Amino acid sequence: MAEFAVHKFEAWRESFQRATTAESLVGLVDKFVRSIPADDMARLPEECREALRDAAMDLSGGAVTLLQAELRAPTSPTRLAVLQELSHTLIAASNRLRQIEMVNSRAAGEASIPKRTRG
Predict the structure, then answer these.
(1) Which of 40, 65, 66, 89 is the most exposed place for a label (fewest CB within 10 A)?
(2) Which residues contact 29 (CB under 8 A, 6 or more apart)?
(3) Confidence of residue 108 (pLDDT cuts 50, 70, 90)
(4) Residue 98 included in any domain
(5) Which residues fall within 8 angstroms of residue 2, CB to CB, at 6 or more apart?
(6) Would you say residue 52 lies in a domain?
(7) Residue 117, domain member (yes or no)
């Protein structure tokens, strides 16, 4: 886990902010999870591995699971830092998804409002 660098997580969070659709964001989250080396994944608690595998379908749930693991289990400073970065990264993705959905919802609402005719 020592290979994990904060800048890698920051780069993923920045890429999530550039996503303009839910589909592109989900694709980025999937790539993020697949970028985690298998040996590092194996060192995480089982519930964290499951949460990461399912993260593209449940961003908020995955973040909560990682936060709970961070708070619950006494662990090494390195593992704690990785759990924090993983949870913060999923939180960033979840927040971005919420923003995208809000924009889409507003756009759909505006499209359904009839335009006034002048006259």
Answers:
(1) 40
(2) 16, 55, 56, 59, 90, 93
(3) confident
(4) yes
(5) 78
(6) yes
(7) no
HSE-up of 90 (CA within 13 Å, CB side)?
A: 25
Where in the sequence is the domain holding 42, given as residue range(s)? Answer: 6-105
Q: Can you say whether the dihedral through the CA atoms of 93, 98, 102, 104 is positive or negative?
A: positive
Alpha-carbon distance 119 to 116, whole Å? 9
SS3 at position 76: coil
Residue 119 covered by a domain: no
Residue 107 has which token pair? 């756009």
Write the single-letter amino acid at 42: A
Q: Is the pLDDT of residue 58 over 80?
A: yes
What is the structure's pLDDT at 43? 82
- Count of structural domains, the chain: 1
Residue 72 structure tokens = 């619950």
pLDDT in tens, 23-35: 999 999 999 999 9
